[in-house]
Design a protein that fits this description.
It contains 14 helices and 10 strands. By secondary structure, it is α/β, with parallel strands linked by helices. The chain has one domain: NADP-dependent oxidoreductase domain (TIM Barrel, Alpha-Beta Barrel). Strands 3-4-5-6-7-8-9-10 form an 8-stranded parallel β-sheet, covered by helices on one side. Strands 1-2 form a two-stranded antiparallel ribbon. The longest helix has 15 residues. The two termini are 31 Å apart. Its EC number is 1.1.1.-. This is Aldo/keto reductase.
């Protein structure tokens, strides 16, 4: 395992870390025993950072992380998120009283005294512009409830604004081969300001694994079913904002990236890691086998300059016009 600085937080995090949305239950049925085995597999292979949220399984993902990291609280970093339990448009949802309650609830579920990275969970841009929530987080940080804080954003514009706030230490962004605007407009600024970057939706909800055929179907409880057109939350969080059929077509056209890199999953993750401003990439998982497959990206060769240019042109010519969402 290799580790990278998470901006100027003082934390060095595993290049591949993991998001825990999937084991919370929003990706179809899950089994806690299987989830815990997968978490232990990740830790045994050097993963020291996990991303979660208070709404993932109504807090169940946080509880699973508490169990998996018991006794390792000083060695395993946990990032969690808040605000989506309430109305993300309501300023009262970001008041000191409300945020403090969210924080304390997460601390109880995580069985920790401090959250390593506390993130505002895709809030309304108007709320960010008001700025009051940053002062609340400053206070929690001063009290030792949180080590550092950041924002999970839906757009490059939001990310650039957040980096103007002096104590925003990290940004979580949708970044993958199908969503390349971040590389051009946000990553250079993050590198200059030493803001950590967490790359989420790295496999475009599975499209970039190359495993979805034209007859792919998903359980009703899976967001790839109920949020396919953005009915529940921002459409960019599902299939990176692409209509499923178009995403499958584009995925087939990308089959060549697996050459010399074992499979598309590992190639897609490698492409993200080839951007040095990225602190860590956080794919989801349900099983130990998926954890190990994702970690295999660490062993495959980097893309050449010519390959990177080819993928950039593919995005410009074939992908960009089909993306829905805020980027």
């Amino acid at each position: 395992m290799k580790y990278r600085a998470l901006g100027k937080t003082g934390m060095n995090v595993s290049e591949i870390s993991f998001g825990t949305w999937g084991i919370g239950g929003d990706w179809g049925k899950v089994d806690d025993a299987t989830s815990l085995r997968a978490l232990h597999t990740a830790i045994e292979n050097g993963v020291n950072f996990f991303d979660t949220a208070d709404v993932y399984g109504s807090g169940h993902s946080e509880e699973l992380l508490a169990e998996a990291t018991k006794g390792k609280e000083d060695d395993i970093y946990i990032a969690t998120k808040f605000c989506r339990k309430g109305d993300i448009q309501d300023p009262n949802n970001y008041s000191e009283q409300t945020v403090r309650a969210y924080c304390e609830d997460s601390l109880k579920r995580l069985k920790r005294e401090r959250i390593d990275l506390y993130q505002i969970h895709c809030p309304a841009f108007d709320i960010l512009k008001q700025g009051d929530v940053f002062h609340v987080l400053d206070k929690l940080q001063a009290e030792g409830k949180i080590r550092s804080y950041g924002v999970s954003v839906e757009s490059v514009e939001e990310g650039l604004f957040c980096m103007e706030q002096p104590n925003v230490a990290a940004l979580q962004v949708i970044f993958n081969i199908f969503r390349q605007k971040v590389a051009r407009e946000l990553l250079p600024v993050a590198k200059e300001k030493q803001v950590g970057i967490l790359a989420r939706v790295p496999l475009a909800s599975g499209l970039l694994t190359g495993k979805f055929n034209t007859s792919a179907s998903f359980e009703a409880s899976d967001h790839r079913s109920y949020n396919r057109n953005g009915d529940a939350f921002n459409v960019g969080e599902t299939f990176a904002g692409l209509p499923l059929e178009k995403g499958q077509e584009l995925s087939r056209a990308l089959g060549w990236i697996a050459e010399g890199k074992e499979n598309m999953t590992r190639a897609a993750l490698r492409w993200i890691l080839d951007h040095e401003a990225v602190s860590t990439v956080i794919p989801g998982f349900k099983t130990s086998e998926q954890v190990l497959d994702n970690l295999g990206a660490l062993k495959v060769p980097a893309f050449t300059n010519e390959e990177m240019k080819k993928l950039e042109q593919f995005y410009d010519n074939e992908v960009h016009q089909h993306i829905r969402g805020s980027y």
